[in-house]
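Next up, a specimen:

>
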Amino acid sequence: MTAADPVSFRYDHDGLALAGRLYGRLDEGPFPFVCLPGLTRNSRDFDGFAEAIRAGSFSRPVVAFDYRGRGLSDRADPATYTLPVEMADIIAGLAHLGIARAVFVGTSRGALMLHLLVADRRDLLAGVVLNDAGPRLEMEGLLAIKAYVGKTGTLPNWQAATNRVRDINAETFPALSHVDFERMARANFVETPEGVVPDYDQRLADGLAGIDPTHPLSELWDAFAAFRDIPLLLLRGEHSRLLSRQTVERMRQVHPTMQAVEVPGQGHAPLLETGDLPARIGAFAASIES
């Protein structure tokens, strides 16, 4: 089994049919990677990463989830599109798959979810990879996300979807090629009889309405401190507007053994399949078991 042909799985929780993708077999031996996507993203976001991990020197199974309202998971009451509710969905999914311990990879919103999970179910966390989000989020990055979520509408074809992805990201992702942007579009849009649309409930934008530059979000330093005795790898895009270098330095002070990588030519959030990131993440996971 390769990432080109993952197994989709479904499970029921809280009255919803929820979904995800499994790359490889969970009985292979090493801790699996459990991948948690960003706000509007879904399990397909990790196809390239899973393929690289499965083909590399540090092969292991990879699991990726679709949160409620994204990908193949049911749409829900938008009031339930919150981190605590989505975390409960993921915990139920892990129980469904029989995963008692894993190395978690959280991109953006997924990284924030791990700040909750470490308090609620730290027994699940063999190690943690935080991809471009931490206990403090910069307002500039939050406003950039708010500016596009729920505003794309229906596009006529895949080329238009690729152009849309490139227009949003080109300034902060100078290292990416047209092929990279096309892959991002294929992961995050879906084709319908009406056209190509974002593969998430457009009502996710409701949860961003309260973002206001005059009212900064609460910071999660107490939660981050709970990672102190858990192996931790932090990725930051060189041009990230959400995670600042100053925050990374403070995170180092709180977690002195944290490994940190700045990804050149990328912004929020780095594509995990690019450059040497699969090898770095694979080696990090292998070091936990050794």
Observations:
- The first strand starts at residue 7 and ends at 13.
- The beta strands are 7-13, 16-23, 33-36, 62-66, 102-107, 125-131, 189-192, 195-198, 232-237, 259-263.
- The mean pLDDT is 96.
- The chain has nine helices and ten strands.
